[in-house]
Amino acid sequence: MLINFIKLLKRNVSMSLAKISWNRRTIMLLPYFLSDVNADEMAMEILTAAIIILITIGIVIILFISVRKEFQQVREERLTAKAIKEAEKDENDKSHLIDSKKGLSKKSKDLLALIDQEIMNAKEGSVSALFYLDIDNFRSITERYGDQLADKIIEELGNRVRKFGDKNSVAGKHDSDSMIFYMPNATDSEIIAETAKNLLDVINQPLKQTPELMTASIGIVLFPYDGITANQLLKNAEIALYVAKKQGKNRYAMYSSELIEKEQFNINYYNEIKKAISNDEFLLYYQPIVDIKTGKLIGLESLLRWNHPTMGILSPGKFLNVMDLTGDITWFGSWGFEKIVSQYINWKKVMQIKDMYISTNLSPKQLMMDGVAKQFYDIVKKYETEAEVFCLEIIDYYTVIKNPVAVHNLQDFRRYGFRIAMDDMGDQYEIIKDMQSINASILKISREDVLRYINQIEDADKIERVIAVALQKQKIVIAEGVEDASMIVKMSDLGVRFMQGYYFSQPKSKDEIVSVMKKQPWSVDEFNR
Questions:
Q1: DSSP string over 85-128
Q2: Would you say residue 214 has pLDDT above 80?
Q3: Cα–Cα distance between 176 and 45 in angstroms, integer?
Q4: For strand 178-183 and strand 170-175, is the pairing parallel, antiparallel, or unpaired?
Q5: pTM
């Protein structure tokens, strides 16, 4: 259109100039021809020239307006294209930080950088909330279903959290089992609490990959009150998360400065434990269980140890309570069981093993999880071995025996062929009746009860009676914490034949315990081949 107007302008201007030039000559020669020219014709010529000039000016004005309009349109189109390009670049930059497949941050540091950017862009006086979500017992899910299915589960949960937010919120992955949800303009405490509840509901919904329902714990912090950078907010959110886990799974907790003073020691251990699990710092030691009549090794109890990077090997008393409070104890149950099964298979490759079992402790929390017996049995089948080789030691049995899910799991364990040991008499000393109800075959007398009987204090007669009834019911009775010969004599007088403790051997690593196993009659020939 612009080209056509230019051509039209050129033609009209040429005609106008020619006409103007002719009229000007006419006017200049007017004195010579005045006598011959008609006045009306001259007036008409002048009027025609004037009209042509006006038309030409009009055309120029119209053309100028048209060109200006087209220029503005082109400019707007260019600005729009630039805006789209910048938006696409911004989206690409954001997609670099956020994995479109999972709706999760590819890198934790990228996610924190994105949150820092949101903080910088926040209006003065505005309040934002950071929700730190940690999937409860997710490590046991990984142990049970494997990394591939666990990744799909976290992918689905991540997509749910991403879709839960709006265009202003940020959702991202922090590590293998936790996510961050950042919500700007969180000025109302009721909205914050409602958001936390809704996030828990989002996690609780059924999964495509497994019938098992997931739960999460959430720690909540507020910008700018609890931190002015993403790292500060996250650090304090971890403290709130610890408190939420301590209250039980599927809970949320708000950060407060009082939490630091009250829980600082445990919180430090909690954070270190999470790193230790990721860094594979936990390992198993084994303590022999001995038949004092034959001197044979009849079993090994697996005991958790922490190979701390600065403090060395730590016993469970240093950290197990924190693991129990936060739910990491259930991870140990699953991880530890698969470790002893695989270790048993490795030992069988180098020696013949007869009439020996390996035990591991199960916490009440793990026993109260649906399907734990099937999970353990699947591990046994995976390694193509027998369930009867493994014994599950139950601590705090009074809590366990009152829980229908736990009792059902114990019955399933026996049905699959596992051995069950009661590791605590309890205060009421009615354990034999409870052992019968779940078909437990082993009773372990704790070091405290052994000393109580030897020193004849605090219900020593009840301890003696429980041991007598257990032996009468043909249960295996094991005395723990035996440290000297006098304890062996006292326990033997009660008919106790099986014992463990430092008198026989302290807990040893998987390599060190082999030297003890080499001394067994059933292993000598194999090792001397």
A1: HHHHHHHHHHHHHEETTTTEESSHHHHHHHHHHHHHHSPTT--E
A2: yes
A3: 93
A4: antiparallel
A5: 0.60
